[in-house]
Amino acid sequence: MIEDLNERERLILNKLSAEGSVTVTAMARELGFSEVTIRGDLKGLEDRGWLNRKRGGAAAALHRDILERQQTRQEEKNAIARRAAELVRNGDVIMIEAGTTIALTAKYLQGKRDVHIVTNSALVFSYARLNPMLQITMTGGEFRRTTESLVGPIALDTISRLNVRLAFVGTDGFSLERGITTHLAEGAEIVKAMKAHADTTVLLADSSKFGRVGFISVLPLSEIDLIISDSGLAESAAEDLTASGTAFELV
């Protein structure tokens, strides 16, 4: 959970995001700390799954795209995920799609009882596995490192066999004209499958996503039951969503 990191650990991850690997000697020199201290930081980050240590340094455990997305708009993403978690009831069965904002929802399910999560996201699993009150079903499928997700026929087949009350999905962009869009066809199929097997579909998207258009259209906004975004959404955008009859909440 990136908000739990100290400033030195954040700087190490920033370096990993930019270069893919770091050395103890270079980080000690750059940050002005001893090599013993940096080795301790790397061990702590490895224990939490952020990196893999190697002789003399470390390499990123997550793809650079994931690391970069996790470090942007953290306050907004956490607020959105916290609100999404509030929609979950004790005893619920829910689906959570892959995405850095959506994955945080699992983190905020602390205190909920007997919640069963179905997900294609390795990030969701990394949060959910820490909570003994959550039951987790992974879809299976082909692993895509750039999104930390499982996709393809096996994932779709698993989803098609299950029915849930809530599906939390994400997007690379959304607009009234194009609906929710993505850059990855495989991800689009996962969202459609989850929507088809959920009573209620909730889109989690920070305000920077509004107006962006991805390569592939996924669903029109009329097929989304609720959008949760943040208060950074432009007033004109909120007015347009209201006028269209789109249900949304800003946190």
If you had to describe this structure to a student in words, what would you say it looks like?
The chain is α/β, with parallel strands linked by helices and 251 residues long. The chain is 39% helix and 25% strand. The strands form four sheets. A seven-stranded parallel beta sheet has the order 6-5-4-9-12-14-15, sandwiched between helices. A three-stranded antiparallel beta sheet has the order 1-3-2. Strand 14, helix 10 and strand 15 form a beta-alpha-beta unit. Helix 2 packs across helix 3. The longest helix is centred in the first third of the chain and has 13 residues. The radius of gyration is 19 Å and the shape is globular. The two termini are 20 Å apart.
Query: In terms of quaternary structure, what is this?
Result: single chain
Strand content: 15-25%
User: Which regions are unreliable across 5 or more consecutive residues at pLDDT < 50?
Assistant: none
Profile the largest sheet: 7 strands, parallel
Protein traits:
251 residues; alpha/beta; 3-stranded antiparallel sheet; 15 strands; globular
SSE arrangement:
Layout: H1 7-19, E1 21-23, H2 24-31, H3 35-47, E2 51-54, E3 57-60, H4 64-70, H5 74-86, E4 93-96, H6 100-107, E5 115-119, H7 122-128, E6 134-138, E7 142-144, E8 149-151, H8 153-160, E9 164-169, E10 173-175, E11 179-182, H9 185-196, E12 198-204, E13 216-219, E14 226-229, H10 235-244, E15 248-250
